[in-house]
Specification:
68 residues; 0% strand; mainly alpha
Length: 68
């Protein structure tokens, strides 16, 4: 193989390694952010459910008190 061929392969290898060096931390960060967003969404849904259930219970208590 000629010197140009070796140089081309080496250059391509360095480019690929550089791309991986930047892409892997970004992928990890994106995955971490997605997990945090999913957790926040879950917490918001739970809080909404507690609010709705509390309002329903209170409404039932008021209706029972009004009937008696």
């Amino acid at each position: 193989m000629t010197l140009r061929g070796w140089h081309a392969r080496l250059s391509l290898g360095i480019s690929l390694l550089t791309a991986l060096a930047f892409a892997l931390p970004l992928a990890f960060f994106a995955r971490q952010q997605a997990a945090e967003r999913a957790q926040q969404t879950s917490e918001r849904r739970a809080a909404t459910l507690v609010t709705v259930l509390g309002a329903t219970q209170r409404r039932s208590e008021l209706a029972a008190a009004w009937r008696s």
